[in-house]
Amino acid sequence: MIYADYNGTSKLKDSVKKYLIERLEGPFGNPNAIHSIGNQIKMAYEECRKICADLLGAEPHQVIFTSGSSEGISQVFYSHLALNKCNKKLLISEIEHSAIKNVSKTLEKMGFSVDFLKTDPNGKVIIPDEKKEYCIAALMAANNETGVVQDYNEFAKWCRENKTPFFCDTTQYIGKMPFSFKDSELDFAIVSSHKIGSLGGSGILLVKDPQKLKPIIFGGGQEYSLRGGTQNYIGVECMTLALKELVEDMHNSEAQDKIKKDFEKRIKNQIPEAIIIGENVKRLPNTTLLSIPGIHGQGLQIELESRDIFVTTSSACSDNEPETSHVLKSMGLDDSVGRSVIRISLDEKASEKDYADIEDAIIKSYKVLKKIKSY
Ligand SMILES: Cc1ncc(COP(=O)(O)O)c(C=O)c1O
Q: Of 23, 50, 126, 267, which one's alpha carbon is 20 to 30 angstroms from that of 156?
């Protein structure tokens, strides 16, 4: 079996699984309690904050533990709603994840206006020339469907010049590419534990100036009163372990990229009509979005599944929608390409053999599906 939907959710890392099994022996306790068990857990939790801050190039007080990326996004966008000074103008790229698109739509109903950053045919978001101040701007560091890496440092400069706080959705980027919060001059960034080899239900919101943030979950003063609720300490311990391993193993990413690109070349040689979306620009080393016009993406996905290979058609959230995704539409791709995509996203340990097995399965599936060309 090859699990090739890492961008949807990752498998649990072996080290995390081992840690978790042992950790389930205890101790358990409320980190806010004053007894020694609570204290011990709180100390370990705060140590995790320091380790995560260090790995991400941030200060410990800039690390807010959350339940995942969607929560971090909602909190930052709602914080701006709650801040009176805000001019009620939002700027987001057309290819943002639905977590950002949908919170923006909600704010629109509350009187905000939304401007969109356009995308070029390679999947890169175009940084505007004109000057305009916004309440908040959002551009993802790397797209979950195409893997295309965006010029977020350049956009951070634009935001600074336009006095606009910058939210960078780093969900797919952190853990796959080198990252430093300090060096990139972002105001907000996020980590989702289930995308980096740990459990679902924890995440990190990085905030340059936490004083400007407001809580959306009120509770007993946890997370510097910015995120109430008893801490998910085991989730945070596991996430810290996964993040540490990924950041420390990052030197492998160039080799990963090469193995992936060799695979893409072989596919294109054997299927001349195959298209690799975003092929000409920098992409995440683990992601291939492949389109074979004339072969329905869902058909190919089912064929591959029958050969024990698990891919998706674009992002998990839109798998049930037979339409071309908003990301591909933004790139100007039509339905003949958009309906034919499958996303192959592997983990950082993917081998040449994994790619060779996927290649073999794609070619065999293609030969079957070609006989019943769907459109
Ligand atoms: C780019 C991006 N942003 C945000 C999210 C939402 O993350 P979470 O599942 O942690 O809420 C995802 C997950 O699919 C994602 O890929």
A: 50
